[in-house]
Structure formats: structure tokens, C-alpha cells
Amino acid sequence: MERSLGVGGAVVIAASSTAATSSIGIGLGLMAGVVGLHLPAIMLVAFLPVLAIAGAYGRLNRVEPDAGSSYRWVGRILNPWLGFLTGWVNVVGTVVFMAYTTAVTGSAVLQLLGEAAVHRIGGLALDPDSTLQSTLLGLVVLIAAALVAVRGLDLAARLQRYLLVFEYAVLLGFCGYGLIAGDQPFSMEWFNPFALPSLEALAQGMVLAVFCYWGFESVFSVGEEVRTARDASRGGFLALVIMMLLFVFAGTAFQRVLPLGELADNGAHGLTYFGAKLAQQPLAALPLIALTFSAAASLQAAVIPTARGMYAMGRDGTLGRVWTRLHPRYRTPAAGTLLITAIACVLAVLSLVIPTVGALISAAVNAIGIVVALYYALTALAAAVRFRALLRTAPAEALRVVVAPLLGALALLAVGGYLCWDFYRSADHFELAADNGWFELAVVALMLVSGLLAAAWSRWHRRAPYFTRRADEGAPAPTG
């Protein structure tokens, strides 16, 4: 694959994958229902372990840039079964994300049509909260985004750069105005994590916040296409810090404008409602347009690193060779990109059993947040093991690449484990519903069990050398 990205393109890929506008638009309302008026606090608390884990990603990428990123690093350093599981849950989580983001994208488009007074097409009444209508419209956007991704990272990064500029201009403008014009009394308690209502609120709020930061590491999945390993690391760190500042800024602005009840009740439509409280049409439509652009860009940004991860797994023989087929002209994993898109389309159609977009988001975000916490933690543990010798030779650097990632991993494992226990005890029967704790656990368990079964198939049927080679075999040469 061609090395076509610099640090600017790396920031764009990471920022688009994190999709700050979408996370703010649909995530802050969900988090407010859990943590109350402490959105800035929970975003700051969650940033600390994620920042520590970003240090692990950056250091591992400097010595072993690889399209498989955490899948290859965890497999070489800790255990190939854990490595495969890391890659698998990353892929599955991203596919689930793509499936529900199609509904978010379609819902945003339908809301825009509603603002333009288009409420019916023929005899069909348009409903932005209908998963059927939203998903079908979002699938068109997903397929178009995949075709652009096949064309190459340079084109995708240029397109996403323009979308990001518009999104951030709208966010900064509306949130800045909201801080000034909002009539809700400001309080420093909003930034106090010790004022969170309960341990359960802390755990679930942390998982939701980690989900919001999820995606910065996508830049390391395209590490073989970034000009230097240092550019990839800088891009990931810059994107992560920018996301944190945006989340805290937006959380504070939302709480200045919206009372808690309105903030929590407007979950999937939070950004639209926020814009309508601050401006009249047509200006009030700008946040909705930004949300639409963000959701569309995040679909493209999701398929890019996922296809690279599957490319690495196919290259190792843990998956079929079809995943390694590159486009003859653009040198991108075209077959994998289209296959991932097709799988996401199928899953999006299957998710129609959940009747509303808001419920679909709630069901997906908690499950993805838990598996993201798991594979972040495993990557951080791999870095701590890989660079443990620095504890003797370079203690200052060891704090950043050994101690901090280890503490971040332990924090995320504790939060994820506690939330799983809370889901288990919150219900006494299984029900196919977004608010059923056993259903939430079943989604997580399905991701993990399917990964173990796929690993067993790869190990004993495919006889992939990934499971038997030594840790120092097959490692790419350090660059940057």
C-alpha cells in the first residue's frame, strides 16, 4: 500500500473516526441521563485513561507500524488468542457502529427534510425516529462512502477535511454562543467528578465517554500508509486532545442552554434541539447539517481502518486471502472494504427489530463501549510488557509508556467489569429490549464468543502461523 498521508491527513482520519459532532449530537443526551449535570467532569475523567492508552499505541506504532495495530501487537507480545480476540472485537464493534450509524445518518437527513417542510413523499409519512426509513436512507450513504474509500486515503482525507472544517465551525459557533446566551446557572460542580450521583453512574458514564473518544487509534491502522510512524502518533494525539476540548466545551455549553430534563429527553436529537433553542431557521438547521456530515464522514472513517485490520488478519492467514486483495490501481484493500460494507448493511437490516433510533443507539453504545474498554486495556498491557525494561534504563519514559498505560488499562477493566455486573443484577429475565441488562450482556458475550470460535477455526482448521510463530518473527522493520 502507498504511503500517501502526512500528519495532517492522519489527524483528519483520526478525528473523523472519533466523530465528535455525532458523539456530541447523540451522546451527550444519553450521558446526561446517567451522570446528570456532570458532562464536563465525566469527559475529563475518561480522557485520562484514554490518553494513557494513546501513549501505548504511539510507542508501539513507532517500533512496529502495522495495519493490524493492536491485533498484531497483543498477539506478538501477550498471546495470539488474545491478539486475535482484540482484532475481532475491534472489527465487530466497528461493524455494529456502522450499522447503527447508518440509521443516525438517515435520521439526520430526514430531519433536514422536515426542516425544509418535506414531511411526505408520495403516500409515505417521513419519520426521523423510524429505524426502517432511517436505515434504508443511511445505507445509500454508507455504500457511497465505501466507494470513496476504495478510491484511496488521499481522496478520503481531503473530503473529510472539508467536512470537519464545516462541522467544527458550526460547533464552536453555536456552543460559544450558548455559553453566553444560556440561562441555566453555571456551576463549578459540573467539573467535579466526586459529585457524580453514584458508582453506577460513574461506571456507565465512563463507558459512554470512552465510546465517544473511540476512534483516535484508527490512525494506527493506516500506519503503513502514513509517511512516517511519528506522523501517525502525532496525528492520533492531536486528534484526541482536540476531541477532549470539544467534548468539554460542548458539554458545558449544552448545560448552560438546556435544563437536565430537556438534555436527557432529547438523546438522539440533542444537537438539533440545542440549535433550535439558540437560533431561528435557517440558522437552526446548521447543527443538523453538521451532524449529517459527521455521521457520513464517520461511516467512511470506520470502514477504512476496519478493512486494514482485516487485511492484516488475511495477510497472517487467520482469515481468508480475499481480505488481502488490493485494488490494481489505487492499492487499497478494495475487496475487504466492500465486504465489510456488505456485512454492515446486513447487520443494519437485522437491527430493524429495534423500533426506534434512540433505542438502537442505546443498545449499541453500551455494548461497544465495553468491548472498546477491553481491547484498549489489552493493548496497554501489551505496551507495558513490551517496554518494561525501560523501568530500569529510562524511568521517566517508562512512566509514559509502561506505568500510565498499565494504570489506564486497570481503570478501564474495572469500569467495564463493574458495568457488566450492574447489567447482570439489573434484570431477572432476558428480553429483546435496549434497556434489558441481560440483553446488553448478551450482545457483549456474542462479540467475545464469536471471536473465540473464529480463533479456534483459524488455529486448527486454517493452521495460521500467527498462532505458532515466535514473538520476534514477522515483525516489520521500525520506521520514523
TrEMBL record:
Keywords noted in UniProt: Cell membrane, Membrane, Transmembrane, Transmembrane helix
Superkingdom of the organism of origin: Bacteria
Bilayer topology term: Multi-pass membrane protein
Subcellular location: Cell membrane
Positions of transmembrane segments: 30-57, 78-100, 132-150, 162-181, 201-223, 235-254, 283-304, 334-354, 360-385, 397-418, 438-460
Molecular function, one GO term: transmembrane transporter activity
Main subcellular location: membrane
Cellular component, GO annotation: plasma membrane
InterPro entries found in the cross-reference section: AA/rel_permease1 (IPR002293), APC_superfamily (IPR050367)
Protein name in UniProt: Amino acid transporter
Organism this protein belongs to: Streptomyces noursei (Streptomyces albulus)
